Amino acid sequence: MHRFELIELEGEDYERGHQYGARVALAIQQNVEAYVRLIESYAGMGRAEALEAAAAFESVLEEHTPSLLLEMRGIADGAACALADVLLLNARSELMGTMCNGVAANHSAGECTALAAGPEVTTAGQVLLGQNWDWYTAIEAEAVLLHIRQPGKPDILTLTEAGQVGTIGMNSAGLGVCLNFLSHVDQGPGVPTRVILRQMLGCAPLGAVIREAYRVPRGGDVNVLLAHAEGECLDLELTPSHADFLYADAGWLVHANHYESARLRGGDTGLATSMSTLARAARARRLLSAAAARGEVSMEIYQTILRDHAYGAYAICRHADPSEPPLQQTATLASVVMDLSARTMYVAAGQPCQEAYQGYTLAG
């Protein structure tokens, strides 16, 4: 049974970052080297150019999220590395999407599938949120679980790559967030997605959470599926300049790696390259809606869906396709299901068809 390392962080911004960086210094170095190679492959930037592009995010963060920039400085000092290294890890998806020879690199190939269900369709009236994290197998990125205690804010539990400030996760106020990367013709500079997600996880009221996605210029094309223990499920589809939202009118939501919004789908550039996003979404919708119609959505149903192997290598539980070039092969690297009502996150450290889910609970 595999397990992600659980890292406890507390104190003020810089102090938390320094604790984090010192704890995972070798993993940060490994991740930087891995992403330098991948960014060169997908965006055509060598090491010096990639680090220079990463360093340009410093001024954006200084203006819009200064506390997290201070935390990143602490991470860099704790890990004895340059701030640009930490910025590169937190903006790796935006850097991979950088225009190369006039064409935006496709970074939606991670092909994650996310699900949300509210109390009206779950067996125990709880709120469930979860997803598979699919990513490039060539990266071998070191992932960690962070338990973050911040003065005056909810505690956070987030699964992310070493050196990043947050990604998939939940907080002690009952909020949970999941992530799907998308591709759109709308491109522009802005705050990296992982920084926005961490800002969202630092909020308690749902309105404040949503505001964090709207108030800053965004650096990427992404989907954020979120839910709250109070019972709401909501989906935010984002580009650097535009945003739209989807309600869980039937009590549940599913999202993959394409735009569902009628206003944004016309600019979607990922559908032409994805081998699975529409099929995975259709499969997950059928399985979840059938359980919801019976009021039988449960932790077991979530895990069954996330372990699903329909369509082979391009299934919800993804396995690498050996016929693809090595740098393009992707697989499910982790699976997460959150019971927001119980403030408990269940994590499979690897493909959920092979690894058991392990539970981690936050105090409410």
Description:
The chain is α+β, with helices and mostly antiparallel strands and 364 residues long. Helix content is 32%, strand content 24%. The chain contains eleven helices and 16 strands. The strands form three sheets. Strands 1-6-7-8-9-10-11-12 form an eight-stranded mixed beta sheet, covered by helices on one side. The protein has a six-stranded antiparallel beta sheet with strand order 13-4-5-14-15-16, covered by helices on one side. A two-stranded antiparallel sheet has the order 2-3. β8 and β9 (175-181) form a beta hairpin. α3 (47-55) packs across α6 (83-90) and α8 (193-201) runs antiparallel to α9 (206-215).
Instruction: Please identify the structural class as seen in this structure.
Output: alpha+beta
When the domains are counted, the total is: 2
Highest CATH level, the class of the largest domain: Alpha Beta
Which radius of gyration do the C-alpha atoms yield? 19 Å
Strand-helix topology:
Layout: E1 5-10, H1 13-23, H2 25-43, H3 47-55, H4 57-64, H5 66-79, H6 83-90, H7 92-96, E2 99-100, E3 103-104, E4 113-117, E5 128-136, E6 143-149, E7 156-161, E8 168-171, E9 175-181, H8 193-201, H9 206-215, E10 222-228, E11 233-238, E12 243-247, E13 252-255, H10 277-293, H11 299-306, E14 330-339, E15 344-348, E16 358-361
Parallel strand pairs: 1-6
Antiparallel strand pairs: 2-3, 4-5, 4-13, 5-14, 6-7, 7-8, 8-9, 9-10, 10-11, 11-12, 14-15, 15-16
Helix pairs in contact: 1-5, 2-6, 3-6, 4-5, 5-6, 8-9, 10-11
